[in-house]
User: Which sequence fits this backbone?
């Protein structure tokens, strides 16, 4: 008979090196989140990782179930992300809501500068990556510039001007973040219709911008899961993730530029105008 694969929680129990995390997940009922269909990647601190927390901090953490639950949810994301997938991502969104930064360092693959010491432990509904420190969420985006400020800083003056002058009835803020597919100035200027649009055709200009604004925030890792997203004009945008990620066939040349009120992905040329 084929071997039945256990769910994440049982696999954690079976490892013998994740006892503290397993108990914490059970005490806060976060274990219920690990029983879903998934798939989900879980970055689980080892028993040694918990032992590294200062005694006073550990006591405070264990005495505050709400804080402990927030910390544990920060270690869980969504999607199927083995290490071979993670190396192509910059960020994941945790179930707690904040961003988990992913990067390759000299020591190996890290999340929030924490080394993945034992990767790719498979479970029926996801993948466990054992990490060597406990990660703490910290609302780190509050001090980031806004989308419009970031566009200006990075030299996307025309895209910023479009966002400034046109009203798409989309308000971005820290509680409602959006996605912008930003086009470099030279690519907009090379657009055959651009001189006409900028001089007189406001309706077409709004249509152009509406293709590049998504009324929800999508990190690159979430684009991988979504595959199709809908622009501000309601039109579908097809996402293809490979060695060269594309949106409606247009290459994404820079991704996951985090802002206070959303995220920017830079694309090579404008998305198609609606005819």
Assistant:
């Amino acid at each position: 008979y084929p071997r039945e694969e256990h769910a994440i929680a049982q696999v954690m129990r079976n490892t013998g090196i994740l006892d503290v995390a397993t108990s914490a997940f059970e005490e806060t009922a976060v274990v219920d989140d690990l029983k879903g269909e998934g798939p989900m990647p879980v970055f689980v601190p080892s028993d040694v990782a918990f032992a590294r927390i200062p005694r006073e901090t550990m006591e405070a953490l264990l005495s505050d179930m709400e804080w402990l639950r927030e910390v544990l949810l920060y270690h869980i994301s969504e999607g199927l992300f083995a290490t071979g997938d993670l190396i192509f991502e910059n960020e994941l969104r945790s179930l707690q809501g904040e961003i988990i930064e992913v990067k390759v360092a000299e020591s190996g693959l890290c999340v929030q500068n924490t080394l993945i010491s034992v990767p790719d432990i498979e479970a029926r509904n996801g993948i466990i990556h054992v990490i060597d420190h406990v990660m703490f969420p910290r609302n780190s985006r509050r001090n980031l510039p806004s989308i419009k400020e970031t566009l200006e800083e990075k030299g996307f003056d025309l895209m910023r001007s479009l966002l400034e002058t046109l009203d798409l009835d989309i308000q971005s803020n820290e509680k409602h973040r959006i996605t912008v597919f930003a086009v470099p100035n030279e690519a907009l200027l090379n657009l055959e219709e651009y001189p006409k649009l900028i001089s007189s055709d406001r309706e077409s200009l709004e249509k152009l911008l509406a293709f590049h604004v998504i009324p929800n925030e999508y990190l690159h890792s979430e684009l991988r899961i979504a595959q199709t997203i809908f622009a501000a004009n309601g039109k579908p945008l097809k996402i293809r993730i490979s060695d060269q990620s594309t949106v409606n066939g247009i290459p994404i040349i820079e991704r996951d530029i985090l802002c206070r009120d959303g995220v920017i992905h830079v694309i090579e040329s404008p998305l198609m105008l609606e005819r």
About this structure: The longest strand covers residues 114-123. The mean pLDDT is 86. DSSP finds twelve helices and 13 strands in the chain.
